[in-house]
């Protein structure tokens, strides 16, 4: 006789193409269907990963994709949006719009989803909040809550708070010491085999004639691609032969493209936009660069290690754990000047780059999905 399935509810604002959303997609695709019955509720029905998760969950959303509606439906959307985000008590938003029969309820991203699920009327459910952000460097949720005390009170309504790295945990506890006892670390799941498989797929990409740097992420301020372009300009002016590929989309794309054109960097910098298979691009590159001001536990850097790519990164959350100090790459101070020096060091010393490449292949093999999913499934079991 089959044992009762654990009913799970995951709540997230959308499945737009960011690191946390990608992590959730991997998690949902690999939860044991013999143990879990999963509902995913998106507040807004949009994002690049929606079709990837639908075969694995009961999918529902509160608001439609605003880009796919117009006329009177657009007005209804705007009214409903105001009701949910501003006008209605969150207890009623949960009661009217969120499925509420789960054994375990998970707010998978900090911010509004966490705030909303804290007002759950399902008194029987175990409640878990996932935190991906280093609140010491990038406390972006300030705009969601009235004040710090209100945010801490929100987290106190959860039974468990998951942070994705040691640095994220320390920053969270520093910000909210009263909920310290609820906090634990669980690392992000990564599908090692799928990444390797997709990395081998053919993509008609330009042939490589010089060293190729690659970076992947949302084109947003916190990813600091503007300083990476400044570094590219300095490298070009210093006579280095290189290519820089940047994969991802976001609100800064137009500004970044304008800078590339203005500084005549088209011959060495390419913005590729969002790619469904970034791994084929990574396997045809030599060095992964992370210029971020803040990270939680970088999915892109983890994927780079799996594909055997050495890494140069700014010092942000999770990097020391991923690179085990500087065993598998270079961690610079979180500044444009030191990141430039870190990249320049490997361009000047290709033998050092080769050394990292040999070592990083071994590190990449340590990210097995089975090991990473085990603590997650334990946490989600009632």
TrEMBL record:
Glycosyltransferase subfamily 4-like N-terminal domain: residues covered: 18-193
Entry-linked Pfam families: Glyco_transf_4 (PF13439), Glycos_transf_1 (PF00534)
Record-listed E.C. numbers: 2.4.1.291
UniProt keyword Lipid metabolism present: no
Glycosyl transferase family domain residues: 208-362
Top-level class of the enzyme under EC nomenclature: transferase
InterPro entries per the UniProt record, alphabetical: Glyco_trans_1, Glyco_trans_4-like_N
The keyword Glycosyltransferase is assigned to this record: yes
Keywords: Glycosyltransferase, Transferase
GO molecular function, one term: glycosyltransferase activity
Source superkingdom: Bacteria
Listed name of the protein: Glycosyltransferase
Gene coding for it: pglJ_2
